Amino acid sequence: MKVGLEVHQQLATGKLFCDCPSELSEVVYGSFARRLRSASGENRTVDPAAAFQAARGLLFRYEVTDSTCLVDMDEEPPHPLNPAALDVALTLALLLEARPVDEIAVMRKIVVDGSNTAGFQRTALVAVDGHLDLHGKRYSIASICLEEDAARKVGEANGEVTYRLDRLGIPLVEIATAPEIEAGVEAREVAEEIGALVRATRQTRRGIGTIREDVNVSADRGRRIEIKGVQELRKIQEYVGREVDRQEVLLAVRDELHRRGAAAPSEETVDVSSVLASIASGPLAGASRRGGAVLALRLPGFAGLLREPAGSDERLGRELADQARAVGLRGLLHSDELPAFGLEVGDVERIQATLGLGPNDAFVLVTDPDRARATVALRRVAARAAEAIEGIPGETRDPLPDGRSRYSRPLPGRERMYPETDIPPITVTAEHLARLASRLPERPAALRERLAKETGLAREVILQVVSAGQADLFEELVRRKHSPALVARLLIQDVPAIPHAEGETPPDFSLAVLDDLLVEQEAGRFAKEGIPNVLVELSRGAPTVSAAVARAGLSGFTASELETLIGRVLAQNESLLRSRGNEAFSALMGDVMREVRGRRDGQEVSEALRRAIAQRPSDPAA
User: Fold this and answer.
1) Stretch (H or E) spanning 145
2) Which positions ≥6 away from 590 have C-beta within 8 Å?
3) How many C-alpha atoms does 442 have within 13 Å on its Cβ side?
4) Entry pTM
5) Residue 111's closest CA among 149, 67, 162?
6) Bond before 339 cis per omega within 30 degrees
7) Per-residue b or e along 352-363, where b marks 16 or more CB atoms closer than 10 Å to that residue's CB
8) Most confident region among 301-305, 325-329, 587-591 by mean pLDDT
9) Which residue has the higher pLDDT, 339 or 604?
């Protein structure tokens, strides 16, 4: 197995080719619509990915916000490349000991999926031939690029896709590794280290979607597959593992097809609507009433190879269904999963007879009100089945929440690149590099080593603090004499655990608020266990920490009140104390903590309870 990464991180420097801020916005002022077509690149050929995207014939609608301008709308030429963003990219080149190019030439990368109003994305190569040292291994950094981010998709329906232009043009630094990674866990660790290195520049945006990874995977005898846009670092190893499993299943299918002597299937489709006219339920029921037809495609030699093998849930049938979905169908049915979905054994036998199939042959069925679209879908299925005989096609895939991926489009190539004619080349001078080299940020490895030594915390804890991009905040709060352990728990456990909608970033509290919270807690206003409740109230709009403490019901429980509560609990459990003595402590502790949790420190409660048990009068009957 070989894995290579492309780590993309948004920068907080303003947009790359205009003066708009690099921030998202929910304020929409209006919209406009366009259609895009593919064009030839510098080599005068059309890139297959661009051709595939253009063939979908979609209408693209663009929402204009207060973070967009005429450059984003492609109604004004791009401004000169943002110098602050370029400094970040060159700083990373120096940190990774890469070789900056002598002259930076901005290129146009043809993209006609609607994510850019111009039909291309601007990108620039900044440096090559760097390396990253991690856990005693050196990883080659193939390239460092600076490019503009795409518009963000906010809706899709009835052949129209809606994008919002606020994200378009936000600078992305792209760091690409060589395919030297050999395990999913290793890929995650390399991605985390690169992310920490980029955040060390203090010029990055934070939150969901601000850092994304393209994961390139190939198994032994397989092909390179690009899983594009992975947002959760912790899932990288899962995507890698599932992709290797997928390729192994498809390679086993290829070997069996070769053993059977299977040939590429014909694109000829057969209308089997009359054979299935009596189907009463399932996705094929009533196809003729909806104005559509049920079309079938023969797959000679494929019987039994469309379902998942034992021990895996990857299967060729899903690969074929993805091709149908790519042209707008909901999917397909294949013979390895039938009878089911409203079809009985007799229905399957009639289809096989109509198609003239033998015992080793399979078939697929699709239906759609648009017969032409259904025909196109089956032609794509036939092409994908033919590729299954050859092995694994190289392609771009979208990550799914369960760790699998789904076909997106063919792999792009060099044909989509051509020079940007509106932006002059930028010379990289030795003086410029020397100025940046004189103020390089601390490398993550050195930072982790220093923080572990200064605070005495476990290296695993420090690793989480740095990986989360919280090192600066951590250091400042510790500098204000707060407990390093408490600060670390606050930043890497309590704040991220605040309830928030899926896909949203946890609330971001200011240094002043977190400092005040720690001051209040360490002064005994409430217990450490109450910190999550206070944070929740702050996220809900409590104006101050004191107000949040009150709203959470954590204020007003004094040491004297604690002693009174313990005395009452002991009195209520006198029989338990007589029968179990000191062994009753755990049960009594639970009773007390149910009433004081979050208002007094657990260790203080424990000591007070043990002291009260020890001081209670002896049992006269004993």
Assistant:
1) strand 137-148
2) none
3) 11
4) 0.83
5) 149
6) yes
7) bebbebeeebbb
8) 301-305
9) 339
